Amino acid sequence: MDVRHMRQVTAIHRLGSFARAADELGIAQPTLSKSIARLEDELKLTLFDRSGSGARVTPMGALLVERAERIIGEADRLARDVELVGAGEIGEARIGVGAALRSEFLPHFVEDVATRFPGLRLQVLVEARDKLVTRLLSGNLDMVILVDAADLTPQDVVKHEVFRENSIAVTSPDHPLAGRASVSLAEFAEHPGISSPVETGFANVVILGLTDARAANSSFFVCNDYEVARRLAIAGLATWLGPAFIVRDELREGRLVKVDLDWRFQLTFVAAMTRAASHSPVLRQIASSAQRLGKRLVGGGPASP
Questions:
Q1: How far apart are CA 141 and CA 221, in angstroms?
Q2: CATH code for position 192
Q3: How many whole angstroms separate alpha carbon 155 and alpha carbon 132?
């Protein structure tokens, strides 16, 4: 049995039909039927119960499908890792970016990568942090740039610190908390607010406590679009807690003011790759670009080169 057979078996199982599987695999149905028949003879097992309505795996077929899916995944990841290492500046890079970096960091980052690697096919996905981590570990992304946390373990990934930023609380200038000295987290939670979803790995005791305290507040908003968060905070409809660079312009212009919260928390953003993908010269250079732009971002200016 080889990977070709495994792809055929998993396609038939997934699609429930030899005809549909043959179409997806780009081969004739009689060719697929003969291939599976030879495999069953070789294994001395019946893998599918055939009927006029389609094909269903037998118990032994289900066992083979389960193992085959893992092997196919590993084979695909190996092929991708070899491609990344040997591609040079020509090829494809699939990068996931956390929502916090969408507006201030991402446009400058993509422009910088496109300028440095004009022959590179760049795919960029902005998504929730926990989904990005899952996609990275499953081999569907080559690199992710997001907040570091315990779910990114040294056994699974290689991390390059991009930048660090303080998490701050802000509100409109006419909000009751504006101008107050040393506002406690409990007091902060009493007011309508907006925050990003608490996601796997990023959750910590303080943020979870803040979310729990606000759970009974009907005016508590959860949204991972930071433009929405800014608008609600500027309008005086919500307080906001998050990375300082996101609201730097609004603070400078006086549209938002910092709340003197008696709690401090620093966020570390990293570029993370699987250990195999970290050998790619292109990905290492892209991570360096992210570090350079990140330093400019937290330095108080735009992340533009």
A1: 30
A2: 3.40.190.290
A3: 17
